[in-house]
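Researcher: Excuse me, tokens okay?
***
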Amino acid sequence: MRGMVRAMYYSGMRHILVLHFALVFNAAAAVINNSTNGSQPHKLLIGFQAPWNMSFPFSALRLGSAIQIAVEKVNANPSFLGNYSLDFVYTDTDCNPKASLGGFIHQVWKENVSALFGPACPGEAEVTGLIASTWSIPMFGFVGQSSKMDNRDIYDSYIKIMPPLKRSSEVLVKTLEFFGWSHVAMIGGGLDSNTWDKVDALWKTVEDPLRAKFKLTAAVQFDTSNPQLVYRNVKYISMVTRVIVVLTNREDSMTLLLEAERQGLMNGDYVFFLVQHFEVSGSVAPERTHDRRSSNRNKPPATKSVSCLITPQSQNERHGFGEANRG
């Protein structure tokens, strides 16, 4: 766990984790206390599953220290757990359902975890959530998952701690206000070209406050699978503003950013906000193929501009804006 300290953490996520850890393990401590005399200190262990790879927005390298800080804050306040201490064990699942399932079985049988935080990726959550439900072990989802997880009859031990759609727009608005950016544009894909269940709802949730509080110079919603439309609309957006909100799924977001790089928009003059509420747990970069040209084409843009992932947990995030603010 020492290696986790070096990981970058999001302060917004840190405060959320403190609250949920306190509530969850307060209940767990009460259950355990009924079967003990309460005279000896006890340790409550939580399982944490996330990919280690930094290409995933919710990788352990990004969240590890947030969880460690949350655990330390809970342990530092006796009013939370009383005669109990809290700790966690980590499993690198690499967004692989088999790895997640095997890791969870090990965490339960060998390490005796009381609850599971994660897994971060939808495919993993659907599989591991079934056995967690069978064993009546609480599983906390901190990332947007597929609609299958909403079936309470099947996933009855799954607890979703994702905030409502409007939180994403609130994070974006506060960030724009903080840096004094008054002109902004939106670009992205509609429901026909997107795998999100509620992409149109999220688009509307983001668009309304931007129109109310800023100068929304353009709002272009189109089929992002059409290369000609991607070229044309990225070109147009770059002419009306330098602060661009990208609202689409992860694959199409990368397509738009790569096109922006080809058009010379990654020189430090533009800021791109990737607003995601669903499927945010996927890799930032598409899978690379064995073809050398294809591999180079799929690499994330080398950029001086800022690409910021806006999620509901990012409200207090302040990382990475300095260069764009100066430019």
